[in-house]
Design goal:
By secondary structure, this protein is an alpha/beta fold. The chain is 51% helix and 17% strand. It has helices spanning 16-28, 47-57, 72-82, 101-109, 128-144, 161-168, 177-183, 207-221, 224-253, 261-294, and strands spanning 3-9, 34-40, 61-66, 87-90, 115-123, 153-160, 188-195, 301-304. Helix 9 (224-253) runs antiparallel to helix 10 (261-294). The structure holds uridine-5'-diphosphate and magnesium ion (MG).
């Protein structure tokens, strides 16, 4: 098998027929030895039925049907686990990632790279706050992390079997695949593209999902927040030391101790806030350790033609 295309699908019924058609055109111009792995991530619309129909008509169409919604990253991961190609493409199902770019990705990886990711030059039809938070996030995580995670890229990319095998062997539960792939090293490169508008439907990444995905990425690739909690502790202790000296001075030298409601409130609130932030940071890491210790299966397959 030369090329595997992994496609996570969550409620994409209106996009799938056109997606399949454009994928076939793009991939057959690279190789005739290919497979499409559709991972149905608990869709509640007709996506599964459409994928099954495609599978009945085209031998290259394979699918994995999850028992419920496990999330985008795990859908991609399941696809990677089952991909048999020498080269693996990861692409969204909503046609925001133009399938025609696969030709360019494939041509470039053939020149001796292990990963070629598609880097967004422009993003059409996404709100300014989505673009702004995305830009901010990629820069923020790169400041925090030792791993250079490419700016302005999603999961649309092509990788070699050797990288895929390494990523599939990583047992961690809170997947942040674009970081895990960057972390492997080897020769990585990029091509620029214009990210299209969603063909149909609306984004399934709510702000809550985006936020927890961001925390997954940060906790998986940086321990700096924990370090910052420690620094914050030292800083607050230092300030407290001077406040204590001042308090003692007021009591024993000035004999002036009755007033002080404002300063008391301010310090209780300040220390309380700092403590809660630090506990929260520790909690984020702790909950991820717990998730990993539980050793539950990453996803459950209801049906598949693999
Ligand atoms: N997706 C998924 N599971 C989810 C959410 C999304 O498999 O829980 C798929 C979705 O069908 C699409 C891709 O992941 O193929 C990207 O999702 P979306 O377009 O909603 O995200 P955005 O492009 O807005 O970041
Ligand atoms: Mg999308």
């Amino acid at each position: 098998m030369e090329i595997s295309v992994v496609i996570p699908v969550f409620n994409e019924e209106a996009n799938l027929p056109l997606l399949h058609e454009r994928l076939v055109n793009a991939v057959t111009s690279c190789s005739n030895d290919y497979e499409f792995i559709f991972v149905n991530d608990g869709s509640t619309d007709k996506s599964l039925q459409i994928i099954r129909d495609l599978a009945a008509r085209f031998a290259q169409v394979k699918y994995i049907d999850f028992s419920k919604n496990f999330g985008h990253q795990l859908a991609v991961f399941a696809g990677l686990e089952h991909a048999t190609g020498e080269y693996i493409v990861i692409i969204d199902a909503d046609l925001q990632d133009p399938p025609e770019l696969i030709q360019e990705l494939y041509a470039k990886i053939k020149t001796g790279f292990d990963v070629v990711y598609a880097q967004r030059e422009t993003r059409v039809g996404e709100s300014w706050h989505k673009r702004f938070t995305a830009k901010l996030f990629y820069r923020f995580i790169n400041t925090l992390s030792d791993v250079a995670i490419p700016l302005d890229t999603g999961d649309y990319r092509i990788l070699t079997k050797r990288i895929k095998d390494i990523v599939v062997a990583m047992p961690e539960r809170n997947k942040f695949l674009r970081g895990q792939i960057a972390w492997t090293g080897f020769n990585q490169s990029s091509v620029m593209y214009k990210r299209d508008e969603r063909y149909s439907g609306k984004s399934n990444y709510s702000y809550t999902k985006m936020f927890s995905f961001a925390i997954d990425g940060i906790t998986a690739f940086s321990n700096l927040p924990l370090r910052l909690a420690t620094y914050l502790g030292f800083l607050v202790s230092l300030i407290s030391f001077f406040v204590i000296l001042y308090t003692l001075y007021q009591k024993y030298i000035n004999h002036n101790v009755v007033q002080g409601w404002s300063s008391l409130m301010v310090s209780v609130m300040f220390i309380g806030g700092v403590q809660l932030i630090c506990l929260g940071i520790i909690g984020e890491y702790l909950s991820r350790i717990l998730d990993n210790v539980k050793q539950r299966p990453l996803y459950i397959v209801r049906d598949s033609n693999l």
